[in-house]
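Suppose you are handed a protein chain with no further information: no name, no annotation, nothing but its sequence. What can you learn? This example shows the usual starting point.
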Amino acid sequence: MSKQTILVVDDERDILDLLEYNLKKVGFNVFKAENGEEGISKAKENRPDLILLDIMMPKMDGLEAVEIMRTDSDLKKTPIIFLTAKSDEKTEIESLNKGGDDYITKPISTIKLVSRIKAVLRRLDSSEPSANKLEVHDLQIDKDRYIVLQGGNEHRLPRKEFELLFFLASRKGRVLDRKALLDKVWGDKVYVVDRTVDVHVRKIREKLGDHYIETVKGVGYRFKE
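A reasonable first move is to predict its three-dimensional structure. Written in structure tokens, the prediction is:
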């Protein structure tokens, strides 16, 4: 199996070198870039499996860079982790809304960083289910029959509740904002409001319990890992 490739984008040379050394040590191939513009160029050229992206950089910051990457057909699904010294909630929410898959505040130990990288890669690998059946936690979600098995209980959810549950569960651990959920589950040609998602999540929780779907304040929802 070929090694997975990570692109590290940061304007501090010592951080770039340290990350390159530690990521190579655990088996990744590593490319480096020193600002957002160079990061986009290197990403298009090398098609990495994952991008570690700083925010505060010259020429183009990480927030601008991720917006451009998410409009590129080759990069729009590439997992991106923000690795930054900015620890305020507003920036974290903005980063996730613009297309980040995770947000990590510096400093972080190598062991924890590698663990978060592998977690994102695992869940993104399985984000597009190849089958219509999912087994997550104690749930078996069968899209062919539109039923949910929970222990010895069988649940038949209304269509949109089921499809919302299936979509969230198939992207376990990934934060999804309300707009994305509306587009994917209801479609962009159907007029519904953000509140519709909240109501359907509440109904799912009433039937299955409130320990599966987590509310991410100011962003949306995440199916717990």
